[in-house]
């Protein structure tokens, strides 16, 4: 089911990174040619060292592999001096690896209707929609290196980038019943995350590879197509082995009694093979024609947060006043959503959609739909 999205994301990301590499080459600021040459040589030698000076704490395992013999003692002495000068610079002349270049000002990006997140006049009862291109790498805002943000980085020099689905009046990520939505990208690296999470985060990996490790050393690898849940009070470690790009939902909610007892585990689940046509499944309530049927699989259900997968066959049905807020990522399929006022939008593979509590409207599924859904709020 995830093949169409992977194909779309892969070709699209290759094009994005080609554009970003050209931007990077054109925008690099230099002081003198000799300084950059010396810095590049020292940096290359430093990264090629076989034995880093640091050791990951405890039983955590880093993601850096030995790829070349150790540098000679003479080169190490020269390298150490150059490295200290390089690290002392306020603004390195090089950009983060992997082609990730954040956009610090979205005003410079062409603004067209099909690239924007679409919401209606009343966010309390109208859906919000964004195509995959809305979260393109060159539309994410650079946050800087995780080390400069206070992160406990011990592998590489990861830089991260982000963009929310929508912003509130103060410029922060907008929330719907405590849930905010957006995208995030990060370059290769690793860091400890000992602070207990204040929220529950769910994300779908669009591209890249990495792992999260629980406090007791149990690791959970993930890659493109996987869904990851980091519950409230989770702590542990992150390792990014290949530049990652993900879409996320963060839910700020009250503590759940008993949920934080013992080790709080991350949840990683690949997309299952769901086929409503091949199974005996319930017909969707409110169906208008073709009796659409769905298959639903829940992977996380704690307190006010639920996460899972759903596949639905073609057909139309009505939803009346949702009791919860739902955000979902479209893995495959084509459908239309229509508001009570008649405004409608076509949604397809790669899109992000948010249906707020109280939303009423019409679903018209044209091609079988598979989605990753995150539901927040009290069920009635």
From TrEMBL:
Domain (S)-ureidoglycine aminohydrolase cupin: 179-247, 307-372
The keyword rRNA processing appears for this protein: no
InterPro entries tied to this protein: RmlC-like_jellyroll, RmlC_Cupin_sf, UGlyAH_Cupin_dom
Leader peptide range in chain numbering: 1-16
Keywords on record: Signal
Pfam families membership: Cupin_3
Domain of life: Eukaryota
PANTHER family xref list: CYTOPLASMIC PROTEIN (PTHR40943:SF1), CYTOPLASMIC PROTEIN-RELATED (PTHR40943)
Descriptive protein name: (S)-ureidoglycine aminohydrolase cupin domain-containing protein
């Amino acid at each position: 089911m995830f093949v169409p999205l992977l194909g779309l994301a892969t070709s699209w990301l290759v094009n994005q990174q080609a554009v970003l590499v050209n931007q990077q080459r054109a925008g690099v600021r230099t002081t003198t040619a000799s300084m950059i040459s010396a810095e590049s040589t020292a940096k290359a030698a430093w990264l090629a060292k076989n034995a880093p000076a640091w050791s990951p704490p405890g039983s955590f395992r880093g993601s850096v592999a030995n790829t070349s013999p150790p540098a000679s003692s003479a080169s190490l002495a020269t390298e150490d001096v150059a490295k200290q000068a390089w690290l002392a610079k306020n603004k390195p002349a090089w950009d983060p690896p992997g082609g990730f270049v954040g956009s610090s000002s979205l005003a410079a990006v062409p603004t067209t209707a099909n690239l924007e997140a679409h919401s209606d006049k009343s966010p309390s009862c109208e859906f919000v929609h964004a195509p995959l291109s809305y979260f393109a790498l060159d539309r994410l805002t650079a946050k800087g290196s995780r080390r400069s943000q206070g992160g406990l980085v011990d592998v590489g020099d990861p830089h991260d980038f982000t963009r929310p689905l929508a912003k509130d009046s103060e410029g922060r990520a907008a929330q719907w019943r405590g849930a905010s939505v957006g995208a995030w990208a990060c370059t290769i690296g690793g860091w400890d995350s000992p602070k207990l999470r204040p929220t529950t985060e769910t994300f779908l990996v669009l591209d890249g590879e990495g792992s999260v490790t629980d406090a007791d050393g149990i690791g959970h690898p993930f890659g493109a197509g996987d869904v990851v849940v980091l519950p409230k009070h989770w702590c542990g470690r992150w390792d990014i082995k290949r530049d990652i790009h993900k879409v996320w939902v963060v839910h700020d909610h009250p503590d759940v009694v008993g949920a934080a007892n013992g080790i709080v585990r991350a949840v990683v689940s690949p997309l299952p093979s769901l086929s409503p046509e091949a199974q005996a499944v319930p017909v969707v309530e409110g169906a208008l024609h073709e009796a659409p049927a769905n298959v639903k699989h829940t992977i996380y259900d704690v307190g006010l947060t639920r996460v899972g997968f759903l596949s639905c066959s073609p057909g139309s049905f009505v939803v009346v006043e949702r009791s919860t807020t739902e955000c979902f990522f479209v893995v495959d399929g084509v459908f239309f959503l229509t508001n009570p006022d008649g405004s409608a939008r076509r949604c397809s593979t790669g899109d992000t959609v948010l249906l707020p509590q109280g939303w009423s409207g019409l679903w018209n599924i044209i091609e079988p739909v598979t989605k990753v859904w995150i539901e927040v709020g009290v069920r009635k």
